[in-house]
Amino acid sequence: MNGVNAMSSESEVKKMVQEKYGAIARQSKAAAQESCCGSSCGCSPEVEFTVMAEDYKNLPGYAPEADLALGCGLPTQYAMLKAGDTVVDLGSGAGNDCFVARSIVGPSGKVIGIDMTEAMIAKARGNASTLGYHNVEFRLGDIENVPLEANLADVVVSNCVMNLVPDKKRAFSETFRIIKPGGHFSISDIVLKGRLPDAVRQEAALYAGCISGALEKEEYLAAIEAAGFVEVRVQKERRIDVPQEIFERYLTREQLRDLLTSNVGIFSITVFAKKPRP
Known about the structure:
alpha/beta
């Protein structure tokens, strides 16, 4: 298998993720929903997908053209945003969470989306231009080295992105750096209860599909605390039932049997954490 662990460097992991999400950015929403973290099943054998996305339609500011169904939660719904806030969305995709955030922070606020995929940035900027939004901007950048000054954001949001980052410790450290003292984040992501079989953890396609890159829940929360955050709590938790046929593409019959009897749980969680004041 073309496994994550077999890759020679983290840069190859990032390149693989960029290529996957770049391809999604260039296709229709219907096609995107059959890819990676999309919400439907029925794609061709060479396409990896999961059933993780949630419905944004009832949220203020929702822009259907910006919703590629790639998330696993509704972080903006739990982010306690207020008028005038500066919000940063890490892994902003086509701008979905940014546009929802904008509707809350209003004209006195500002929203900045960061994404490492050029095609996603282009799509998001095009959506913002079409919608006539002038206080939303999108910057090309790496979450492990966020192109923003320290102590900028009142609130950071992110949706099913940290699990795609090879160095999660660095990503949470960068998140801490850009948040103002007293500010906070609300991040939706995929975590595990139990350990996935090595055959799954090593599969690059499942890494891009938001599964094999996920940490165990307690390890994930510990990484947040290790970055310096306080008041860490899970705002929402939802079990993800991944269709068996996804794993059948990458596992032998024996490996699949071991997975199904391992009691591994795959969950979407939305986590709150605060940057303490000095």
